Predict the structure.
Amino acid sequence: MDKTINQKAWFLVLPVFLVVAFSAILPLMTVVNYSMQDTFGNNQFFWNGVGWFKELLDPSTDLGSRFFASLWRNLFFSGVILAIEVPLGIVVALSMPRDGWRVAFCLVVLALPLLIPWNVVGTIWQIFGRPDIGLFGYVLNSAGIDYNYVSNEFDAWFTVILMDVWHWTSLVALLCYAGLKSIPDAYYQAAQIDGASRWAVFTAIQLPKMHRVLLIAVLLRFMDSFMIYTEPFVVTGGGPGNSTTFISIELVKIALGQFDLGKAAALSLVYNLIILIVCWLFYTVMTNAGAERRPVQGGA
Amino acid sequence: MARIDLVDLAHSYGGNGDTDSYALKPVTMTWRQGGAYALLGPSGCGKTTLLNLISGIVTPSHGRILFDGKDITKASTRERNIAQVFQFPVIYDTMTVGQNLAFPLRNRGVPKGEIDKRVAEIARLLDLTPELDRKATRLTADAKQKISLGRGLVRSDVAAVLFDEPLTVIDPELKWQLRSKLKALHRELDLTMIYVTHDQTEALTFADTVVVMHDGRVVQSGTPAELFDKPAHTFVGYFIGSPGMNIIAAEISGREARIGGRTIALSRSYAALPSPATIEIGVRPEFVDIAEPAPDLLSANIERIDDLGRIRFARVRIGDVKFAARVPGGFAPSGATVGLKFQPDHVHVYADSRLVEGA
């Protein structure tokens, strides 16, 4: 087939290119530029090559140790909230009504936490958990449990995780619910005819049919939790000590607190790279799983 | 295996209300153990509802269902021990073909050796043996439906196997094969089978007894020959046969029917017809011949002639009523008007759409 050559088509691409250039590529290049240089203020820059990266990836330095400590915290946090939110979301989705006015009611209630801005969520829990005036903290302390997220590491983690579960389990539940709704009634009827137990229905029908939405849910929740900043910053400010200082909080400390632009730029590039790699991994797994599921045409 | 009795069974999805609005109007009938039945009717006539009532997916709002005399109206699907195959293939994605077939047996705690034997047997009957270890998701729609059929047939102790238009998604060629296979399986396994379809060929080739449904009502149940020769309801006459039965309003007196001033002889006498009622006669196109117009024949205008190969049917009009009649071999109408010759034995009289028996 002959291709029509029309160079004017470039004009259609140009606006998008400009928008992407100004919104993403140019700022990113600035960061790359900073990451290779050092400055002592006065807008004077000195070439540092890959020095910041070497320091960042070497745990024996101050920068490296802070990076790795916060990286493990981030990974641990993401692991914990995924381990809680995914099963919990599935359970919530399974126990939701399938039709009637109760569906609308449940959807609204579930959507509520998702609509609240991050810093408001943080503020809510910051107050909610205070032992003196917060309902949650006060009740726990009156019940004889010594709970204080400001001074106790465990309590701080507990609060941050509980807050994330409260905020985001709905997302997993809604995605799973959508997956469940797409299962035709015939599957349940067939399972009933085949004498399947509730557990067999779950493992043989519901879980396989939710497979795709679950991958999306895991991907979204991993990315979001790995980039978490606002809520722990508002609630614990990264403390007590550095116990809830995640990479993003560390990044802000270095960039704005110490004004170490070079170190911060190197850290943010590596941070970005980690997220990109994980997304790519998920994407590959998802598309491959999809290809495997497509029926083979032809031979019966 | 069981005899199934329906006693005043009716169902309304909206709860109560007028009987006329029921999805299934009250029906009392018996399904013989080991019979091959077809439930035939157009979409929305209640045949799937009736099937789901028998399998227990739907609980009836009225009446009772008995299996071998035991009331199971409120029993769950599992307790009823029924197998059902649905219109679209249902397969368990994560399992292989063999595991799919074994699923109904595994759920009922059948010993492993027994399961393997049954699965192997059913796979052989359905030509699925080479696919047993393949993932079921990777197969075509045809093969998936065969798995669904297999799951329906794998249990040897079921009270009945119900099929809900199972061949809709299958290619015509394979459809033919599978239908014959089902028929063979029915003979081999001695199971009661109930087959829902809107395709008369499917129903008539599969079943010993065809149950015709119309508008939520069972209008006739009988052998294919009975349905053809003596439709109990004008709907049966019209729905079965191609082209369907001719129905035309007539005045009846004794052994004669009058249409537009012409008289048609009847083989039986109809003395007392219900009144007031709409009186019609019904006759299959196969039993009316067209001929040259004559003073004693009902006359009609030819619209077209359909040549079906073995047989030719003339599509004619009597006044406003459409009519079909056979064109005798070698006959070519000379004009647009023809006469109609009826075979008296095959002319039936209907009052308000129901067959009236003559004396």
User: Anything to note?
Assistant: Chain A has one domain: 23-290. Chain A touches chain B through 24 residues (CB under 8 Å).
